[in-house]
Amino acid sequence: MFWISAPNEEVKQRLPGFMKYLADISVIRDLTDRLNASTYWKDVGWLSSGTLVANAIMLATMPVFSRIFSPADFGVQNLFIQFAGFYAVVATLRYEYFVQLPKQDDDALLFVQLVAILGFFNTLVMTPVLWLLRDIISRLAGDSALSIWLVFIPVTAAAISLAIALQGWAQRQLLFQRSGEAEVVGKASYSITTLVGWFFFQGAGGLVMSYLGAALGKIFWLSRGVRYTSCAKYSHFILMVRAYMRMAVSLALSHALLACTVAIPSVFISRNYGSEILGQYALSSLVVSFPTSLLGNAIGNVYYQRSSECWAKGFSFGDIWQSTAKSLLLIGIPLYGTAILISPWLFPLLFGDAWAPAGHYGAVLAISAFFSFATSPMDKGFLVVRAWFYPFLWHAGRVLTTAMVVGMALFFEWSMDVFISILVIQQTALYLIDYCAEWHFAHREPSHTARKGGSAYAGL
Fold it and tell me: What is 354-375 written as a DSSP string?
């Protein structure tokens, strides 16, 4: 046989060309591409290891927080972050999510600077406005304890947006280790701020200020070594804003609708069932979302970076979607299946007997949380393919159906248990729709590619 006998001189001379020919065969080329793609999971490992340590800090401190703060305090925190999330949409128009998209690093860095400028001026203008409107807003939200904390919404929203932009920049530079470290710094800052706030402020002050502390910690860690463009580059601001304006408006409207989707149940629970029940719901929602925070976000960030790079080079990213979706299902099914079974007795054990209702809510919410875990890491595919219309339509449908569930709860006078069960069914249906849509985006071929049908991993 040729492969086990000593090659003659003619074979030796032809061997390099023959091996090059073999490398061009599609099967071997695809294998090479997939081996190159192993860095995908290496980068996921950096991010997930950081978020693992970060959430370990969160899990270690949460039993302490659940004993020094009341369920009503967690209810105030929940309302505050809903308002801050909504305000962030208005303040920056979500330009922080576009850092990965430009081909040139200088253009990407302009987005970071733009987010910082918008956040600063919005904080300067809107802080006194919210002080004047604090009583009206808190009354509409159904919790007067929220009133004194509303003035911190602009600076918290600005800090969160800037942290997202800087994290996108770090990931664009393939600094996934630094991005993972920032998660640890952020969660440590969250815990320290909560404890300091509990010592100095009454009520929910520590919990409310924790999000600002977490964002500032991440900004400090991620901004190290970031270079800034010269003043001459500021002439590109208008061009960049115009180039991405349609996507920015679509994404801003979508995130505003998302904020409404999250806020509608919270405000309804606060007004209809009371702040104590809202606190139980808030803690259960926070805990069942840990896997998404721990691993889903890490996978999603790397997925976004890789798919953006594939698309820019003229490839679809269907292979990346398939690999990611399979891994999410293999992780999520046993994880959330266990959560459904153990939540009712685990919550009182970890957080105290006062949180027993949260355990029952958590078991139900874990169902929709699983579908969120399976879909949300891949939900930026529409950004990559510039399908600007999709997020608005999907989020509009979600707001409409959420409002319908709340309306039925009011009309039929549902108990909290029934309301959460129907809400979970509604959320699950929307996640399944998004799952199918993201599959479609991932398999779309770029119009500018000259290599149709090429592997999504090629060139990475």
Answer: GGHHHHHHHHHHHHHHHHHHHH
CA 396 to chain centre: 19
SS3 letters for 129-148? HHHHHHHHHHHHHCCHHHHH
User: Percent of the chain beyond pLDDT 90?
Assistant: 47
Both tokens of 386, joined, read 């510039």
Quick: pLDDT tens for 343-359: 999 999 989 899 999 99
The structure's pTM equals 0.74
User: How many of the other CB atoms lie within 10 Å of CB of 243?
Assistant: 15
Q: Which pLDDT belongs to residue 414?
A: 95
CA 210 – CA 189 distance, rounded (Å): 8
For residue 13, give Cα distances in angstroms to 4, 9, 20, 107, 312: 17, 6, 13, 49, 39
| Residue 14's pLDDT band (cuts 50, 70, 90) | very low
Torsion, Cα of 216, 370, 433, 164 (10° steps): 10
Angle at 78 between CA 77 and CA 79, to 5 degrees: 95
Number of C-alpha atoms within 13 angstroms, CB side, residue 221? 25
Q: Which DSSP symbol is given to 6?
A: P
Give the ranges where 223-317 is alpha helix by DSSP (H). 236-243, 245-272, 275-288, 290-291, 297-312
pLDDT digits (tens, 9 = 90+) for 121-180: 999 999 999 999 999 988 888 888 899 999 999 999 999 999 999 998 888 888 888 888
DSSP-assigned letter for residue 99:
T
